[in-house]
Amino acid sequence: MESAADAELRPLLRAELVRIADDDHLLVLVVHHLAGDGGSMAVLARELEACYRGLSGGAPAAFAAPAIQYADFARWQRARLTDAALDEQIAYWRRRLAGAAALELPTDLPRPAVQTYRGAAHPVALPAALVARLRALARAEDATLFMVVMAGFLALLHRYSGQRDLTVGTAVAGRDRAELEGVVGFCVNTIALRVEVSGRSSFRALVGDVRRAALDGFAHQDVPFERLVEALAPARDRSRSPLIQAMLVLRRAVALPRLAGGAATEVPIDTGALALDLQLSLSDDDHRLAGALA
Length: 294
What we know:
By secondary structure, the protein is an alpha/beta fold. The protein has helices at residues 4-9, 38-56, 70-80, 83-97, 128-140, 145-161, 203-218, 225-232; strands spanning 13-21, 24-31, 122-126, 165-172, 189-196, 246-252, 278-284, 289-293. Helices cover 36% and strands 19% of the residues.
């Protein structure tokens, strides 16, 4: 019989195994964002592999008790986000984002008066040779691969919008303690990076500008984005999201479970929904970058 605790968790985590053929199955795993983030998927994949290995060998997998629980992360966050700390960080973002303009991309159809959240995703893959060149550029400019890709994304937005003053969101993992590597829960936060883009500047100069904006943003990443929107109270426009309309997410690719006698592959899903005008999501597997532009 399902316990009360199981009933409460059921809407946050659901799983269904679909048998397609004797040697072909599809595992559908639905995780509410309140219950997990990208870092959580890596933990779930490792534990799924351990369970499969144990059960296929005739014995259930044994897991050591985690060093901490998600509740510990929540307590750390509350302790760190004192009024004084929040005020200092909010003051930074108030200065940084003052007067930032909304992104105006050319569209085939008029923007609806009220944001619909309808969208679609187009697969994107950067080949290994190109990614190797991007990494080399990052090393030469004392930057990260994320900073180089963000510079490219900003250059693309500048070309299509004609705007020089651009603000793009990105996700920060929020797992700044080693103990959090094995925790399943929502630790991620969104920050807004504002960069001046000029067609007369070199791309290397743009990478440097992104590097400075990113390092400053990462140093002030603790304010929950919803709290930041509330504090800054931008003029509301029901046709678009507040503060940011485009986002770049670059994360480590999740290592898929290794199954004895079989192989696991990831099946991308287009949900048909998007909270922003444009989002580029990429996964880094050390060789290529792959994901979707939605």
